[in-house]
Give the backbone structure.
Amino acid sequence: MHEYVWLIPLFPVLGVLINGLLGHILPKKVIGPIACIAVGLSAILSTMIFFEVKALPPESRILNDVVSYTWMAAGNFSVDIGFLVDPLSLVMLLVVCWVSLLIHIYSIGYMHGDPGYARYFTELNLFVFFMLILVSSNNFLMMFVGWEGVGLCSYLLIGFWYEKKSATDAGNKAFIVNRIGDFGFLLGIFGIFFFTGTLNFQEVFAKAPSTFAYGGLEITLITLALFLGATGKSAQVPLYTWLPDAMEGPTPVSALIHAATMVTAGVYMVARMNVLFMMAPISLMIVGIIGAITAIYAATIGMTQFDIKRVLAYSTVSQLGYMFLACGVGAFSIGIFHLMTHAFFKALLFMGAGSVMHALAGELDMRKMGDLRKHMPHTYRTFLIGTLAIAGIPPLAGFFSKDEILYKAFSAESTVWETGGVILWAIGLTAALITAFYMFRAVFMTFYGKSRVDHHVAEHLHESPPVMTTPLWILAILSIIGGWVGIPWIESLNLFPQWLEPVMKGKAVVSQLTGGIPAHAVHHSLSFELMMALVSVIVAAIGIFIAYKLYIKNPELPERLTYGRFFPVYHLVLDKYRIDELYDRLFVKPTLWLSDKLLWKVVDDKIIDGTVNGVADLAKGWGNWTQRLQTGYVQNYALMIVIGVVLIFSFVIFLN
Amino acid sequence: MSYLLTTITFLPMLGVLILLFMNREQGKSMKMVTFVVTLVTFLISLLLLRDFDLATANVQFVEKYSWIPDYGINYFMGIDGLTLLLVLLTTFFTPICVMACWEDIQKMVREFMICLLFLETGMIGVFVSLDVFLFYVFWEVMLIPMYLLIGIWGNPARRIYAAVKFFIFTMFGSVLMLVAILYLYFEYHAATGVYSFNIFDLYTTVLPPSTQLWLFLGFSIAFAIKVPMFPFHTWLPDAHTEAPTVGSVLLAAVLLKMGTYGFLRFSLPLFPNAAIDYGVWIFLTLALIGIIYGAWVCIVQKDLKRLIAFSSVSHLGFVMLGIFAFNATAMEGAILQMINHGLSTGALFLIVGMIYERRHTRMISEFGGLSKVMPAFATIFLIVTLSSIGLPGLNGFVGEFLILVGTFEKYKIFAILGASGVIFAAVYMLWMFQRVMYGEVTNPKNMVLKDLSPREWAVLLPVILFIFWIGVYPTPFLRTTEASVHNLLRQIDKKYTLVVNAEKQGGYYLSKIEKMPPETENR
């Protein structure tokens, strides 16, 4: 079955072709289902392949070079189109296909009545195609194709309502900021090819230990360049600024691309290249630090936002930070684990927010919501489940993955930075507190308290149709049980990391190179682990309690707190630390000035053309001057002849 | 001996002959005649593809007749992997151009079409000539129709300025090249006692490095102007902006490639020591400046055509990077990128021509929201824009990637800085696209614009097809260049070492002629 893996990305292409070419004649009733069926077929096929691979013994679960033919070859460079079926790519395939399918179905209801219905589904299917290419490729370059392809679809879908300037601005920003990351990815690819002579993942990973020195400059630079790509795609500091703006797109797009799948590609990339990253401890440390900084930084902004989608957007940035934190401490499987659970609950939360918007005629400001739980029971319940999951309340999915990240950070086995793990843990724990707070703030502001809904809108309040609530419930269930595949305290139930074990060769490679696991590796007892988990839960509970105090008990208090002493700090955070403005001053404005005032108008017009025209003018001037000799008077010519003769004679005489 | 190349080169002249006998009023039929002639030329040129031998670096389809024997001038034509795709690109774009100007050109149709046909002959002639004298004739001949196209059918305001500027810049370079050609010609005679303009004979001339440098510069400045490389590029924005659509298209798609081709055929193999010891640093630096400078200046352009013109400076910078990396991967990438640039930028000029026909303006600020009124046009424009940005899956990416990955082998810093061009390309293209296509329709004149007509579909679809084809499966295109590129690099290397060794022995050259393997000439 696995030899048909190429069909998985190809099914959505069928959807693209049908809806893209015939979308303007097909009836609406057909367009949505076609797109859903296309993704559904991929989902079914990837599930079948999953079970096929699961039946194999763990060591033979890596099936490389499934289908491979030369894509391009020039000089000594050659790269194939080929697929890699292994536990990691299967996890990604399953998550991407099934979550996409649910979001496609939801979109049928959500986008109903939009004039760009066919275009929407075409672009959504195209996205799924590129995303599946990204996760199933067996080499760096094809992965890069998917990588840029999803970026393109993100650009198109953010700017889906292209008549709105803010939407197309956000699309441009997303593409361009991502290009900065892609520049890093490209450099990484150049380096990989230069040193190993191939771009095939398995070959590169096999050659890496003998090609690169452990912790050497080359591997460090290469992995840092690759990580720059990851920070762009996964919206990490300092390239995160595009993601909050990306909320301009339709909400299901935010759920699919900017929460569940595309933005996690960076995490997938780092996990996929765990062998390389493990060989570069400094890079790994930077990954962890960037992850931790992003996690807490974005969380603080999340506390102050009033736009429900922006709260979720910053929350996504923050959660992605957790995933990188996990990778940074070498717990790649846990990073992927959190990627999966996050895909469930964050897709759920976004679609819940979409459902609220649907009911409130597109309203996003939480200050104009309140008391919606009575009107929208399904949306409310599922949203609450998602919130509990992200806050890390057991036994929901988010608890297991996030708690495991914090635990791994605490007991990190870094060779570079011995106490670093504890610091990362402390940052992560604080971010968890803030997360619980701002997510419950959102729940309370939206679904509890007094209704602040506009009168005209309030009359039309309604629960969303089943085509939208059904996917919500499915995701809600997944948000509850999704974490049960990785219960860390019981060996036989800790399935998820075991499943990924064959892919995570980094640790083995490192212990081979350095001769054993670093000396200060920490191993804690089960009771200690459970205690750590308890700490996380208590911290989350505190966050929820504060939110309860502030937004249910004393709803006028937050407003008052923002004045007085906290005023400047609050506004700095509310304005997202004014990083966008800083980038504008630092990069955008100077580039524009330089290009316009200096390069174009001075170098091009004045210096180069000035020189050319100067030469032309010189010739013209010389011609003008010499033409005066041609006066037309015979006397003048005669005079000239006489002068000439005299000169020649005197010259000759002088010489003699 | 086949007559294929002569046929392809001079078939357009047959069209000229027919046009001369037609009545002034038959504008439409004249266009039809031109279209048929250029289309037939294209179809015949496909035979080249069928019979081309991929395995050899030898020149193929050779035609060689004595022309002026006393001076060693021959009518000598042939193609190899360096030129096959370029010839096809030329024959491919000419019929498209005829279709594109169907509505646009209404006065002096005969004269316009004659210029176009002359231009085609000139362009093909440049690529297929293997006799330097013949090459030079075509090189100069081709200037005249383009000069007329800009000067007569261009934009009234500044067409004369642009035409003269174009002519003088190119002429300046050509004269330098002519001096260098003659010097080389007499050197060859001095060494062998035989006069010859045959490029393969001239390849065998071995000159000391100092002489090489002067001649190298003589040739290379001419080519650098044509490419155009910074700082010789300022003729291009003016020529592109003022030329009629078809002029811009052919200028971008084919004429600029003559510069890059010149480096491959003349500058590098004739003067390898100068090229490797000095040329690399000069031209890699200029290429890099071109990439970044061109892109930055693009960002602030207000005129669509001027923007695309500057983007050519940036894109051709990549090609030059690939040529001077002296690496097979990069060089194959560079040749492919010449084709890619032709397709993408040619298509961009066609597209701008289409909105120019509708609105008679090229200013970006005049547009906005066109996606709403012209959805099909929007899709095509988007694809071409992305191709120009170098999105993987479309043609531009393949060339750029191969160039950069090849350049990285030896010149890492140039590859790294060059790769930053991908960021700026996205900046100026997407911003332009946003301002033209997105937003609300604010200008009432834009409200009533018609979407693509069937003719316009026919103009654009073939180009789009290749944009996808090369992007998804470039191997067939790359394969045509492989043997010749390897041979060229080998040849350069061999001659370079020869001179270095001779220099080591006190600059004493055993013979000024090194016998190059004869197989490179004939089959």
About this structure: The CA atoms of residues 122 and 142 of chain B lie 5 Å apart. Residues 4-503 of chain B form one domain. Confidence is low (pLDDT under 50) at residues 515-523 of chain B.
